[in-house]
Amino acid sequence: MASYDVIVIGAGPGGYVCAIRCAQLGLKTAVVEGRETLGGTCLNVGCIPSKALLHSTHLLHEAEHNFAHMGLKGKSPSVDWNQMKAYKDEVIGQNTGGIEFLFKKNKIDWIKGWASIPAAGKVQVGDELHETKNIVIASGSVPASIPGVEIDEKVVVSSTGALELPKIPKKLAVIGAGVIGLELGSVYARLGSEVTVVEYMDAVCPGMDKDVQRSFKRILEKQGLTFIMGAAVQGVETSKTKAKIKYQPKKGGDEVTLDADTVLVATGRKPYSEGLGLDALGLKMTERGQIATDGQWRTNIPGVYAIGDVIEGPMLAHKAEDEGMAVAEVMAGKHGHVNYGVIPGVVYTTPEVATVGATEDALKAEGRKIKVGKFMFMGNARAKAVGQAEGGFVKIIVDAETDRILGAAIIGPAAGDMIHELCVAMEFGASAEDIALTCHAHPTYSEAVREAALACGDGPIHS
Ligand code: NAI
What we know:
Layout: E1 3-9, H1 13-24, E2 29-33, H2 40-45, H3 47-65, H4 81-105, E3 109-112, E4 115-119, E5 122-125, E6 128-137, E7 141-143, E8 156-157, H5 159-162, E9 171-175, H6 179-190, E10 194-198, H7 210-222, E11 226-228, E12 231-238, E13 243-249, E14 256-260, E15 262-265, E16 269-271, H8 278-281, E17 304-306, H9 317-331, E18 345-347, E19 352-357, H10 360-365, E20 370-376, H11 381-385, E21 393-399, E22 405-412, H12 415-427, H13 432-436, H14 447-455
Parallel strand pairs: 1-2, 1-6, 2-3, 6-17, 8-15, 9-10, 9-15, 10-11
Antiparallel strand pairs: 4-5, 5-6, 7-16, 12-13, 13-14, 18-19, 19-22, 20-21, 21-22
Helix pairs in contact: 1-9, 3-4, 3-6
């Protein structure tokens, strides 16, 4: 049996990126993955397929609502749902195939099957026992349901089932106004479903900047999504093709029933480490079922590391990727570092929402003296030219004394790309003035970032 320097368990964004960096650093590396294709949840049933559907349905929405106004007359396209799903699958295939190519290029072995860890330095896959100096657990996460709601992936679906519905539901109920609920809710609203989102909290995307939450909800309502806020879902009853959602309004009163053809459960995800034999191995877990690590991705068992959704922190592909690269450096005897204070979060709706760093409310609650610069996209010529100026803005939060950027939030066109200017600024410890003094091309959406930075000082030009 071949022996390795590193065996990575799981080929999602954490695992595959880790493996590539290990190979680049000269470590003999293998990845164990039981799925038919590489890429994990993100590429197969998460980030990538949902973005393909968001793109197709965004174009449909543009054709139906904005083309005529821009002088593009004619019949709106009709939806061929099977072809739309086939397009999505093609995109998945290109990406998962790309990782297979990168594995070959970097001489990484793909051990096909499901792994367990009988002891430190040993990985069992089927009948084969592999020896390795280091093990990285990158086994990811799975959808988490709530009591009284059973996911059957037919009538009551998780994000996985929602990407493969046999037909577009007439009535879709979404439990949870988090990232998954709003992205996939948007997809189906654009496809003509009556979408109702039932959310326990009083605002969408809990924890996000309050201004963004308000604008975001308003914009989504305009796009046809209905929200029932402050509603605790108690359970879902299903027949073969229908569902009844029972929820309890938080403000009191009787339990309410909502009918739907399909229910999407988007109430969070939980770490996945089943079948790895971690109990028998004596691996320390947190109270929330995550693998406990020491800040350098080491578990309590020497030579066993863990990264990504299965450990603490936001369940985001790019956070896992960064940890994957950093842990590879650590195993190669170098220094691995992830700046957890600068991890962007993006919701890929239209408009996009992107945030980084601390929120205004969190900083105020800490008693920090801050200054907030805000600029509306209504003052941005480019956003107006593409019909995406309404309701959007850039907000930058700085330390009142030093002007150092502490956080930012953007709701508007290409927010998910624009946020990186602020991420880089934060990495460099920049002030808002640094951004304000940087020439920004005209006409671009990024000018709104500069204007928000100017708003932290003597004021923006275009408002
Ligand atoms: P989430 O944690 O973002 O949102 C779950 C929502 O469900 C919350 O608003 C919560 O208040 C609500 N909820 C929970 N129990 C409820 C109940 N009984 N009744 C009504 N509402 C209830 O979880 P989500 O959207 O499922 O996403 C899971 C993970 O995947 C997150 O960590 C997210 O960051 C990640 N993800 C990230 C994406 C991105 O970066 N674009 C895309 C998709 C997922």
